Amino acid sequence: MKMFKKYPDIVSVEDIMRMLNMGRSSVYELLRSNSIRSVKAGKKYIVPKQAVIDFVCGVCYNDTG
């Protein structure tokens, strides 16, 4: 089973908000802190879907509680 298969290979901030059920400010903080890998092009973030998957898997594997 592929995670987030309905999303394109490059996702928008709005896509990430839906994928992670998070607000806009929280998503931008994850992008600014490089918790989710991305490239900034002007005012836009270019985010590979795989970067979101890596973030989710990293949170799952690093959860100690």
Features:
3-stranded antiparallel sheet; 3 helices; alpha+beta; 65 residues; globular; 3 strands
- Work out the count of structural domains: 1
Strand order of the largest sheet: 1-3-2
Order of helices and strands: EHHEEH
**Major sheet, described briefly?**
3 strands, antiparallel
Mass-distribution shape:
globular
Estimate percent helicity.
Answer: 40-55%
What is the number of helical segments per DSSP (H or I, 4+ residues)? 3
**Low-pLDDT windows of residues:** none
Mean pLDDT: 91
**Radius of gyration from the alpha-carbon trace, in angstroms:** 12 Å
Strand content: 15-25%
Question: How would you characterize this protein structure?
Answer:
The mean pLDDT is 91. The chain is 48% helix and 15% strand. The longest helix has 14 residues, at 49-62. It is of the alpha+beta class and 65 residues long. It has one domain (10-62). Strand 2 and strand 3 form a beta hairpin.
SSE inventory with pairings:
Blueprint: E1 10-11, H1 13-20, H2 24-32, E2 39-41, E3 44-48, H3 49-62
Antiparallel strand pairs: 1-3, 2-3
Summarize, please.
With 65 residues, the chain is of the alpha+beta class.
